[in-house]
Amino acid sequence: MTAVLFFYLATVIVGGSLLVVLLRNPIYSTIALLVMFAHVAGLYVLLNAEFIAAVQVVVYAGAILVLYLFVVMLLNVKREERFQRQVIPALVVAALLLAEVALVVFGGRVGDGLIGGFGGGSGGAFTAERIQAVGSTAIIGQVLFSAYLYPFEIASLLLLVAMVGAIVLSKKV
Amino acid sequence: MGAWLTLVIFLPAAGAIGLWAVRRPEAVKWAALAITLAELLLSLPLWGAFDRTTATMQFVAEAPWIPRFDIFYRVGIDGISLPLILLTTALMPVCVICSWRSIDRRVKEFMISLLLMETAMIGVFSALDFVLFYVFWEAMLIPMYLIIGVWGGPKRLYAAIKFFLYTLAGSLLLLIALLALYFEGGRTFDLMKLMEASYGASFQFWIFWAFFLAFAIKVPMFPFHTWLPDAHVEAPTAGSVVLASVLLKMGAYGFLRFCLPMTPHASQLAMPGIAALSIVAILYGAYMALAQDDLKRLIAYSSVSHMGFVTLGIFVFNVQGVEGALLQMINHGITTGALFLCVGLLYERTHSRLISDYGGVARSMPRFAACLVIFALSSLGLPGTNSFVGEFLVLVGAFRVNPSVAALAALGLILAAVYLLWMVQRVVWGAGRPAVERLPDLSWREAATLVPLVGAVFWIGVYPEPLLAVMHHSVEHVVAQVGRDSLPDGVPLLVRWIAGRGTAP
Amino acid sequence: MTPTILFSDLVAILPEMIISVGACALLLLDLVLPKTARHWLAYLGLIILGAAGAATISLAAGQAELFGGLFILDPFSSYFKLLLYLATALTILLSIRYLQIERIHLGEYYAFLLFATCGLMVMVSGGDLITIFLGLELASVSLYILVGLNRHELRPIEASAKYFVLGSLSAAIFLYGMSLLFGATGTTNLGAAATALARGHGGPVLLMAMIFLLVGFGFKVAVVPFHMWTPDVYEGAPTSVTAYMSVAVKAATFAVFLRVFLEVFNPIKPHWTGWLIGLALATMVLGNLAAIVQQNIKRMLAYSSIAHAGYAMIGLIVGGELGTMSLMLYMAIYTLMNLGAFGVVILLRRTGVVGEQISDLSGLAKEHPAAALAMLIFMFSLAGLPPTAGFVAKFYLFMAAINAGLVWLAVAGVLLSAVSAYYYLRVVMVMYMKEPAGPIELAWSPPAVAALVIAAAATLFIGLYPAPLVGYTQDAILHLSLLR
Amino acid sequence: MTLALLIPLLPFAAFLVVGLTGGLFAGPWRGRAHYIAVPAAFAALFLSLIVCWQVTQGLRLNQDLYVWIASGTFRVAIGLQIDPLTAVMLVLVTLVSSLVHLYSIGYMHGDRGYDRFFAYLGLFTFSMLMLVLSNNFLQLYVFWEAVGLCSYLLIAHWYERKSACDAATKAFVVNRIGDFGFGLGILLIFRTFGAVDYHTVFSMAPALTGVTVNLLGPLEWAGLSGAHWDVGVLTLIGLLLFAGAIGKSAQLPLHTWLPDAMEGPTPISALIHAATMVTAGVFLVARVSPLLNLSPTAMAVVAGVGGATALFAATIAVTQTDIKRIVAYSTVSQLGYMMLACGLGAYTAGIFHLLTHGAFKALLFLGCGSVIHALGEEQDLRRMGGLRSHLPVTYVTFLAGVVALAGLPPFAGFFSKDEILWAAYQAPGVGAKLLWLVGLVTAGLTAFYAFRLLYAVFHGPSKVRPELAGHLHESPSVMTVPLIVLGGLSVAAGWIGLPGSANLIGGFLSGVMGFAGVAAGHGGEDDSVAHGMVIGASVAAAVIGWAAAYLCYVKRPELPSVWAQRLPMLYQGSLNKWYVDELYDRLFVRPTVRLAGAMWQGIDVRVIDGTVNGIGATIRRWGRLAQLMQSGQLQHYALLMVVGLVVLVSLYLFW
Amino acid sequence: MVPLAYYVMLSAIVFVIGLAGVLIRRNIVIILLSIELMLNAANINFVAFSHYAETIVGQVFVFFVMTVAAAEVTVGLAIVIALYRRRATLNVEELTLLKW
Between the CA of residue D467 and those of D110, D461, D470, D474, what are the distances in Å? Predict the structure, then answer.
């Protein structure tokens, strides 16, 4: 069941990603990204990360992409050439990179490299059971405001800077 | 007494800083002259108090600098450095005076550069810490670069950058070598300790070549010499004088101070090569001088030739050779410096350095002509003048090692006579050209620069013993150091024939 | 598992708090203050930095992992933080007059500068990938804005866009590397990751992670081939921002670079040494070669900063006490001399004159000997010639290299610094040996003069008497865990 | 000692005073140099005579004044050595020098460089005296070069003339070539003996006969050196020292400078280029006789070179038209005689000839000077003639010089030349006989050109340029008095060396330069017949030469041109000095200059600087390439980053 | 249970697609979108690893990444707008005022 779900989600994610990159019209690209994001959220659910999935939908799909759409429509760009002249070397390099990662992930030399790090049930505190018992939102909330208070504050600063910066930059002269 | 030496080293720098406050160019000149003269006076007690019966360093001073890495301010002098320091302090007033009128813009900056140079040069000759040495060694590049580049001739930019990059490229490898020595010699930069330590053969080999490149460029030895003519031609008179008289000596000093004691084995291995290069420098430099029409270029190439004697003398590893080389360094400083002064005087008057623009100077400027001829004769090694003593000692040293090397080197003396006398003939003798006819003879200021040098030429030529007496023990010490590890087996044949030849009893 | 936050933890982040709160205060004051009084914000910024400096110094002796290992307080980080204050303070001093000429809005500028500094501080103190990433982003975002802050010209916004796109790309790659590292070790904490690695975890994914992280770091410190943004952004950004970027970002990134590579990846050092040597060489070569042909001084300094990153990498490659120390020393000295050099360029910018071409310096020595002298000192220092600080910096780097047996790398380094002397010398040549094309007016201002005097005096002083700095640097790494 | 030291120091003091006052500075001193220089010279002459007398009473001196150079085992002092050889040289030098001083007052009167001239004269006299007084080789070398310098400066006295400057430079450089060998000789002496003072060297030398060095030793590794490259060390030393003598005494093949040196003022030609400096080579050979005696090879070379030079120069002298050049070639020829004598071991004969030659050749030069002075700088033989009546004193003294030179008895040249020829005849071996024959022919040629000179100048119809003919006059007495004194000596100087036991000079000198091989000049009674024959032959040769000259230049003046046309090769060859100068020019001078230029442009500028600048240019080119990478396209930048990433990953995975 | 490797592979594919997008598209907005893809790829990794390692850190990290992404997008779009105002283009190929 999970496997089927995974493959469905994976297919759509990859397809959506490809569309983002390949579609000519930025609006369509954005919408493809939206679809892709939603499916990523699904993936998160599959991985017992409901809170993150929710944030993915709310923040990414809800806020960020709307911002994108807004900008795209605001600027209303006329149709342009889609691709760079360097498209072929770029694709070759990208393909090479993918192949290499695949080699690492599946390849002979890799063996069970990944699993070697923390094979299933390596004794972490947050087992799937515990997360489901408490609820991922509660756990993350707890952690964020205790152990990760410091980065949380930094993140808030970051948002502040981004906000003010956006205002400053996009102000008319 | 160490404090005295420190005072001698840093007085010019302090003076340079003080000079900043002076406003009027005339006042700047007088102040600079006063500083250099004071420096000369200060340096004289070193000569007087120097103990001539020992090879150990004297007037030693030590103060922590970066003690954690055993970098100290260590200074001291021996019989090798003392004459060079005195040469420096003696020539600087001359440099100031000869710039009196020829430097007409940015006088203050010029004098400051000169004074900073003086500190760096004396520092080089008295540093007993490798880092300190290196700092002085490189620091000198900056004022010299400015002197050539700002106050030089029409192609000064090219000449300045060529000078700078050439020497920099060489000396950077010196940096690597000194760092390597730091680790190999027991984590110390103390030159005395570094000299006592012994190093493996292959290590010596690499260190030697790093040293060699740095010093050979400075000397300059044969294939690394092309910066010299350009630098000399473009530099202002004082720059040429400092360059020829002191800067070139630093390369030879480096060979003596570093190569021989620290890498004796590699030095001996390199001896045939360096002897060959020296010979080439002597003959090639002379040939080059023969082809020149530019006075300064001619003298610059003659420097190459003369410095060939110095390197040859150093690399025969016997007392005569090394003392001759040392004396020749002093002589070359005096004579070539003086020749550059003479050319500077002419240039001030006519703004031409081309030999073909002159002729018959003897008629309009007899006193000047007398000086020029004396220096030319000194430069060609006429007995009775200073150069003869040095060159002959070098030849004695070389002949003891290998007669044919000495014979080839002596050929250089013939060529020296040819190019110098030909120069004299074309400049001093001949019918007076209209442009030359009305030139004023030496002024008192100019005479004040030349006459002491004439005196020095004859003093050393006739009675060099006081100078040699200062050197004896230090030179013997160096020679003993280079000889201390005898040639190991497997040394190429080339070395053997150089090292021991002849069946004379 | 939920560590409680102690008061002592909060004390430890006092400097960061001072800076961030101060930055917010600047933002607010900017709205309140009348336009004529806004330059006081700069001095307020200096006071904030001073306070943070005092806090850092009082904390400097501390040695603790706080916030459950997210934040590390140690002399190493304090060293870099002090360096960052210095860089920021000098930048502020240099900016005051420059901003008026460029008509850049004041309040936000200083605030963003402080935010960027704060981000870099977070990075430097980061003991966890999360804090490192957040700090990096805080600094980056602030800088994207700072680069594009000048809206009166075409070039800054282009620079900003390029910096943003490439920076985000590198951040994404960096992040991906972090995710892989997380995958390989199961933790984001550096200390824990190091322990896990030492137990033999990892394998190929670890190396992949390391390579991705390397790209991220390499981008920030401008290592070939991840350097390409540098010349364009340095040229396009307001000069004061360029100055800041060239030193502060580089120094902080190198701090983290050291921490991550020497602490976490130490067990697999044989793997990365070779690559880093390759990158360092390429960086030195390319930076120096390209700098030779530049006409724009900002661009020249950009390439030179690339080259310097290459030299600094030597310290990283060597590692150990000497390597780390030499790198730290290099960064400190580099900060002074590079800021100084940019400071002189800033002086050249006056209303209506861009003053970025090297030829604009023609005859500077005649018109403004003091400025020319300062530039001379900086140029020779950048070239690494005694008796300037640059020599001390290179001296220790090469010493480290030779100690590690990397003699040939040191040789390559010195030969390339001979090449570098060529273009630094060209600046000196233009200043001292060319005639001025016309009267040169410098945008003098007391703060800028103060900054230049500080930089020049320090460059000379360290060159002449490096013992205090060397000693302090050595002490700063005495108890560093990454060296054990 | 003090006395001896004063001899050179007096002229030196004169040099300093004159040089620093009138020589360099105008003003009241100008033109008054002789007030100081002339008394100093005569005082030196006086002291020399005293010293010489003391030497005859047995005075010998060998003392170091001070240590000049001391370096390790190399230790050289400046010292004085006085022995008979020194003594006669002292007298000769101071005598000719003081006469020339006197003469110059008149000859150089009104010259711009009057004071300078006297300064140089003083310096020269000092140097020459120190040369002969040396007690070691290096000091000898020092003053050897110093006299060369004076010669250089004096030849270039009229420096406005290009030919004078050329001649001066040539003289110095050619001498340098000889000195190159001399210097090496000293080095070899030091290496061999560990010292350079005469005493040590001469006392150790006999022990070294048979010791050899290999000339190609340094090339041993290439398999080139073999036993046939072994040379006796003493031979090598002797030959190297002789190289110096060749240069200084203008022997073949370094003779070319001396005739050119006639560009100098005539008193200088008399003093330096006839009587004293050029004979330093002979002096040197005589001085090192204890070494040379041990090496027959070196001796043979000395004799051979001497003989060849004597004949060679004489053949040139017969056709020259410049009167000073004739005398100059004659000098070269006579120097050859002296060398010939020394090479045969007849050192006393050589020195004897040196002394007599000093007198009559100085006389001839001064006489020429008087003629030239009278004719307003005219030196061409073909524009003279019939001066006998105008210049009576000059004529008579000149005649004395000519007969002395021609070797007619009982004048000075006869006795000394006869001794040399007798030594040659007497020496064993075919070579020596050949040398005698050469000497004989030369004697004939000498008489020919000597009388040709006399006749062409003083006899026959006047060919003086008409504008000068009116006011020809005899020189002032400061000039004629030296002529008279020297004329007297030319007549009488030979009598100190009468053949046989009455040979004063021989007895005086033989203690210094005894040679076991030939009992030169004063053999036993049984040789008297042979001796008589030799004398007869040489007198006959001289008379034939005289007769031929008389025939050609008095009786039938058209003959010379007839012969010249009939033997064009010989005539042209002789006239053009056998093209030696041209040969040297082609072989050495021009190639050197051309090579220097070519090397400068070729090696220095193109190869070395080309490399240096090439490196710079290459770096710049690469820099431009690196710069071109920076296209401004941010996606190129991104691509490069990714490529870097991929490369790193690939390196890890595949390498 | 889906093997971890599949997640990693999926993330890698998305990452590379994003990367390719950055490299080949001319429109700066789409480049930004592509970068979002890359960030999401990393996020997938984090969550997956977090799940398999039985730790919560990965999820926390993703949370922060989203914050960062939001901040970046804000600034990035502001830059895009400013750029468009001044240069009237979104084509990154035309940003060649700064080069060499």
Answer: 22, 16, 7, 17
Task: Identify all chain D residues contacting B494, using CB atoms and an 8 Å cutoff.
Answer: 221
C205 touching chain A per CB within 8 A: yes
D647 contact A CB<8A = no
Task: Name the residue among D619, D645, D648 with its Cβ closest to that of C292.
Answer: D619
Nearest to E44 by CA among B197, A10, B367, B248: A10
Phi first, then psi, for residue B64 (nearest 5°) are -65, 145
- Cβ contact D74–B393 (<8 Å): yes
Question: What is the identity of the amino acid at D562?
Answer: V
Q: Are D440 and D354 in contact (CB under 8 A)?
A: no
Residue D223 pLDDT more than 50? yes
pLDDT for residue C92 is more than 50: yes
Q: What is the per-residue pLDDT across B397-437, written as a single tens digit (0 to 9) for each?
A: 888 888 888 888 888 888 898 889 888 888 888 777 777 77
Q: How many CB atoms lie within 10 A of CB B192?
A: 15
Touching chains C and D? (3+ Cβ pairs < 8 A):
yes
* Residue B445 scores a pLDDT above 90: no
Alpha carbons A46 and A41: distance in angstroms, whole number: 9
Q: Which amino acid is at A72?
A: V
With beta carbons under 8 A apart, name residues in chain C contacting D623.
289-293
Kindly determine whether residue C138 and residue A158, on different chains, have CB atoms separated by under 8 Å.
yes
- A68·E33 Cβ contact <8 A: yes
Chain A residues within 8 A of C201 when measuring between CB atoms: 116-118
- CB nearest B396 (choices: D74, D160, D180): D74
In the DSSP assignment, the letter for residue B58 is E
Residue C252 and residue C120: Cα distance in Å, rounded?
A: 6
Note whether B46 and B122 are within 8 A (CB). Answer: no
Q: What is the 3-state secondary structure (H, E, C) of B34-46?
A: HHHHHHHHHHHHH
Instruction: Indicate if ipTM > 0.95.
Output: no
Amino acid code (one letter) for B256:
L
SS3 call for D621: helix
E92 interfaces chain C, CB cutoff of 8 Å:
yes
Rounded Cα distance, B411 and D190, in Å:
19
Q: Based on the number of CB atoms within 10 Å of its own CB, is B146 exposed (0-12), middle (13-18) or buried (19 or more)? A: buried
Using a cut of 0.80, tell me whether the model's pTM lies above it. Answer: yes
Locus of tokens 């003690």? B67
Contact D188 B399 (CB under 8 A): yes
Report the relative pairing of strands D230-232 and D212-214 from DSSP bridges.
Answer: antiparallel
| Tokens encoding C297 | 């001084």
- CA pair distance E48, D53, nearest whole angstrom: 124
Nearest chain C CA: its distance from D606 CA (Å): 22
**Residues paired with B75 in a beta bridge:** B61, B127
Q: Choose the closest CB to A90 out of D639, D645, D653.
A: D639
Would you state the structure tokens that stand for residue A148, as one six-digit string? Answer: 């990760």
- Cross-strand pairs, B73: B63
**Do residues D111 and D377 touch, judged by C-beta distance below 8 A?**
no
pLDDT per position as a tens digit, D297-316: 888 888 888 888 888 888 88
How confident is residue A144, by pLDDT bands cut at 50, 70 and 90?
confident
Of C205, A84, A106, A40, nearest to E20 by C-alpha is A84
Chain D residues with CB-CB distance to B441 below 8 A: none
pLDDT of residue A162: 92
Neighbouring chains of A at 3+ CB pairs under 8 Å are: C, D, E
Residue B118 Ramachandran class (φ > 0 left, ψ -120 to 50 alpha, else beta): alpha
Closest CA in chain C for residue D638: C166
Does any CB of chain B come closer than 8 Å to the CB of residue C424?
no
Q: Which residue of D has its CA nearest to A88?
A: D639
Q: Which residue has the tokens 């070519």?
A: D598
| CA D382 and chain centroid, separation | 28
